[in-house]
Design brief:
Number of helices: 10
Distance between the termini: 52 Å
Number of strands: 0
Largest sheet: none
Radius of gyration: 37 Å
Number of domains: 1
Strand content: under 5%
Shape: rod-shaped
Helix content: over 70%
Length: about 300
């Protein structure tokens, strides 16, 4: 009955269907198959072993099952939180990138308008140089002076606007570059460290508990007839081969796309802006240091 109960649970599973085709099973799964085969072979001895199974082995296996389910649920919650945080970081990167593009576009536009104003000023001065001011009538001088003042005033406004937009563009680019590095660091940490730790949490103590439970089973089995030793030796070898590191490596190899870190986010230049390093200038130096410390503190948590 014990063998049938466990067999019915896995008979339709993918691992059971491929058991004869693929012998490279996880160490714990291999133990289960060997345990079931041994139990079928020794069904006549169940009356003798019933007390040990009921009061020890089954209780431990039930505890292991409950612990695994609890750990899995908790690890799943943590994994969802970690993934949401990673999505939040990438969304922040996209936002600051769009902000940088917007301010850089405005800076280019302001620079173009400033150059137009400078050309108009040069053109006006050139005309003034070609004319003899002394030959102009008094009533002709006033409009010309007024025109020059208007051009100068327009140039000053555009110069101020350009300086303002240029500063905004530098700040936005600095923020983008900082966030870019922070996002790459967070992504690397997630795939290289966090996922590995999360996998370890999913089966924390599982192999050790399973090892102890099966050791108890083996100890009881060795008290039976000598004819059973061959089957018990096979199970003992499987228990000795329980290897959480090997199981984890095999699991990760089965799903390489889920555990390999993606390529780093690269700086995307915008409309000819080839500056890919943080610009440290007096107007943004203090703010840059503060932002760097904030990102550094966030990455440390």
């Amino acid at each position: 009955k014990l063998a049938e109960r466990f067999s019915s649970k896995i008979r339709s599973s993918r691992e059971h269907q491929q058991f004869k085709k693929d012998q490279h099973l996880l160490s714990s799964v291999n133990c289960w198959y060997l345990l079931l085969n041994q139990t079928r072979r020794e069904s006549r001895d169940h009356a003798t072993l019933g007390d040990i199974y009921t009061n020890n082995v089954i209780v431990r296996l039930t505890q292991i099952s409950e612990d695994v389910i609890r750990l899995f649920k908790k690890s799943k919650e943590i994994g969802i939180q970690m993934h949401e945080e990673l999505v939040k970081v990438t969304n922040e990167l996209y936002t600051v990138m769009k902000t940088y593009h917007m301010y850089h576009t405005e800076s280019i536009s302001a620079e173009s308008k400033l150059k137009d104003a400078e050309k108009q000023e040069e053109k006006q001065f050139s005309k003034s140089g070609d004319l003899n001011v002394n030959l102009l009538r008094h009533e002709d001088r006033q409009p010309r002076r007024s025109s020059v003042r208007k051009i100068e005033k327009m140039k000053e406004k555009r110069q101020a606007k350009y300086s303002e937009n240029k500063l905004k563009s530098i700040k936005a680019r600095n923020e983008y570059l900082l966030t870019l590095e922070a996002t790459n660091a967070s992504t690397f940490k997630y795939y290289i460290h966090d996922l590995s730790d999360l996998i370890d949490c999913c089966d924390l103590g599982y192999h050790a508990s399973l090892n102890r439970a099966l050791r108890t089973y083996l100890s009881a089995e060795y008290n039976l007839e000598t004819s059973r030793h061959e089957g018990l030796d096979i199970i003992e070898n499987a228990v000795d081969s329980l290897d959480p590191r090997s199981d984890r490596q095999r699991f990760m190899e089965l799903f390489p796309t889920a555990f390999c870190p993606p390529a780093k986010f690269d700086f995307q230049p915008h409309m000819g802006d080839e500056v890919c390093q943080i610009s440290v200038q007096p107007p943004v130096n203090g703010e840059l240091i503060q932002r760097f410390q904030q990102l550094q503190s966030r990455l440390a948590t």
